[in-house]
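Ticket #4471: complex job returned nothing on first submit. Input attached below:
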Amino acid sequence: MKKNEVPQDEGNLSKSNMKELVYATDENGDYTTALSSGWEPKSIALSNSLEDINERIADALARVKEGKASPIVYFMERNKMDLNILAGYVNMWKWRIKKHFKPKVFAGLSDRVLQRYADAFEITLAELKKFKAE
Amino acid sequence: MELGFTHHQSAHCENGVASNLLKHNGFDISEPMIFGIGSGLFFVYIPFLKVNHAPAVSYRPMPGTIFNKAAKRLGFSVKRVKFSNPKAAEKALDENLKNNIPTGLQVGVYGLTYFPDEYRFHFNAHNCVVYGKTETDYLVSDPVMETVTTLTHKDLEKVRFAKGAFAPKGQMYYPTSIPKQADLPQAILKGIKETCRDMLAPVPIVGVKGIRTVARLIPKWAAKHGTKITNHYLAQIVRMQEEIGTGGGGFRFIYAAFLQEAAVILKNDQLKVLSLEMTKIGDLWRDFAVNASRVYKNRSTQTDVYNTLSKEMLHIADLEEDFFKKLKKAIS
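Support reply: We reran it on our side without changes. The output follows.
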């Protein structure tokens, strides 16, 4: 990549005035560094991942609404987590968390267990317990 | 409390932290040098490890290994400590600051409040340096940022104890001894040798063979999982290749910069020629990213586009195989 070809596209970084450092060659072919505000193919890749997450959140919300999933599923997706990551934060086995995905099991959970989820999602216990999918 | 510490922005966090900490200790070394000596160039495909719901593809080795290898080859030692208790982790860090030691930390990206929201994923192999503490904040030098920044005490604890794959477990590290004079040429040779060995490894998921495996999988994903999932996987590959930290082209440009520096130190003109060649390969990886992004942007449903991308990647693999064979010869 030549220094004058370092992309300066509008991107997710430029929105927050961040620039990243890249390595590029100068007119003599020697390596130097340059700052880049963004590159379209990267922005598209990132948007693709974010869209995917938003779809997962919407899908989780719909299933909570239909009574097919507990709020834990929704908050897990909203925090960009998967089962492995959530298991790490609440320090529980994955199979146990999977049970808590069922609304019926969720309804019977103790405050102590729910508090662990609330902490992982950085919400209050009440927010988790009273969550209604609207 | 604030220690004198000079922040230099770098492309990749781990090399940046390593280079900044060494510079702080009076050992002037560039980011590409650390990267090359620490055998930072790599490729691995880990089908059973899912990252953001896609199989993991990485253009770099495991977190921590670049710095460790560079340290070993340059003859300085790095102390690494992990913690199970956040309070103990905080105490140890504060102790270091009191003793005037800027300290490297492994952290999770999700809790880094100074990153744009879009970039905050559960990715735990990020690195930064803490060089001071105030009543409310820690002073942070994050090498991918243009300038220094801060995190509250609570936020720093959170990122040090992020959970999931590669959980940092409060890990902190710092060089404990710096050699007056390192054997740079020897270290460079060792670094290059290992990179050649890794990239030419006879393992189907590593190096050039790993690239081929992924290339052949692209049309298979499309046939098996459909375009939506395939596009998601492709986007993930492009992100691993081009996101902050790679310096562009899946680290190929940093490596080319390293070869250029190495050519001067080893007085080996062949390396300069190979540096140019690596730059061209990096450009081809960039082209691959452009073409892949076109595919998932247009949501094209033809199966042929996946075959085209697959061929493009196979072509890069061929060039890299040839490249690393030549590199191996050039230093032997």
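Chain A has seven helices and two strands. Closing as resolved unless it happens again.
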